[in-house]
Amino acid sequence: MTSSPSTATAAAFPPTEPLSVTTVRPPWKHTFIALSIPNFRIWTAGNFVAMTAGWMQRIAQDWLVLELTGSATAVGITVAMQFAPMLFFGLLGGVFVDRYSKRMLMMITQSIFAVLSLGLAALTLSGAVQAWHVFAIAFATGMVTVIDNPARQVIVSELVGHRHLRNAISVNSSVFQLGGMIGPAIAGVLLLAVGAGWAFAINGVACILVVGMLTLLRTSQMTRLAPAPRTKGQLRQGLGYAVSKPTIVYPVILVAVFAVFGLTMPVLLASYADEVFNVGAGGYGLFNSMVAVGALTGALLSTRRASIRLRTIVFGVFITGVLQAAAGLMPSVGFFAAILVTVGMSALLFQTASNSLVQLSSNVGIRGRVMSLYVLVLLGGQAIGGPLMGWIVETFGAHIGMIVSGAMPAFAAAIVGIVLARRGQLTLEVEVHRALPHVHIVPRSGARSRSRAQRIMRDQTLSVRPKRR
């Protein structure tokens, strides 16, 4: 008898052990406890520089294309060119990340980013830049991202270990969103004062600084993951593992839908700034900063999260979609900017939760491939969504585009919620042993239902075991 691919994958990578977590929120002094680790402090400083400069480049790049072409579809093409490589080669990037040193890979990718950014800066500042130059450099950047992004995700677990991984992911998200708040604001000023070229130059210098900071990491203090051996079928193995675990596959599905429709903000906000409210480049930077303000708030709140559940992610996608659709109905700049804050906060809360749940549900030996799948749908979805939303905006208007961008993720979350509710038929029981509560989930009735529900919930929940005081 031959075993199925999912059976072989399960044998090679046993299910993750139940994780001990606290049932109460951490004390305020532990809100950023991952930063107590020296390597993670160095990494966070470099990441902040990279994220701020990267946001500057992205905003300047999109606005430059809009100035050169006057087309929202062209902005969507720019987004597609940057994220399409992840769509086609993302899983292959995960194989490389599992095989080689994450730190070494990132030093290479950041060096290439520096060359690309400085090249775009030279073209722009010399006045020779054309739209196809931006498309080509965006595509090359996307090719490098195929390796850089999963390496960036997995290296965090090497820096902090499992104990503070969830907190580290939230801190990382906070840094990303802080960069997303500061970067667009600086980009807006630069676009008005000196043009897009200097934003590209600053990003190139920032990438060089990140390479320098990576050299400062103390490798002796890192929890190095054993490299995956070269074997056939590693891509198929990674996919089989992800599909077999509900705590991986359902967040990936929801993130994919949200990426296609909900994460196309550059296309939507550029159109709102240029055509709906006529506030120009400064307004475009302001709108992106409002999203980032909300996202930063959500990232900080996520560090206080006591537990992560699959239903939290489903509910978060639904609420985010509803809020984003509501933004399309806002009548003025003030109301529009205000609701963007709530969209950013809600989106970041569910994204940090999904990232944490996927990583914590993955065996360390296959985590690079699992996270490459996650990054593939996150970035590859935007490659599909950029041109799609650009076409919707040009055909039906920015208001309809914004409504569609929120309604589709909300609909997907509702469908997934119904599927999980029909599969589960579960209830919660609490047993008390030696005055310590033990929480577990059992089916409502029937031996057959019990076996099926236990099989589902083995992968859908993290065991809750209060720490002894």
From TrEMBL:
Residues 445-469 are annotated as: Disordered. Keywords: Cell membrane, Membrane, Transmembrane, Transmembrane helix, Transport. The chain crosses the membrane at residues 72-97, 104-123, 129-147, 168-192, 198-217, 248-269, 281-301, 308-327, 333-350, 371-393, 399-421. It comes from the Bacteria. It is a multi-pass membrane protein. GO terms for molecular function: transmembrane transporter activity. Signal peptide: none annotated. Residues 31-424 form the Major facilitator superfamily (MFS) profile domain. The keyword Cell membrane applies. Its main location: membrane. It is found in: Cell membrane. GO terms for cellular component: plasma membrane. PANTHER family: INTEGRAL MEMBRANE EFFLUX PROTEIN-RELATED (PTHR23513), STAPHYLOFERRIN A TRANSPORTER (PTHR23513:SF11). This is Predicted arabinose efflux permease, MFS family.
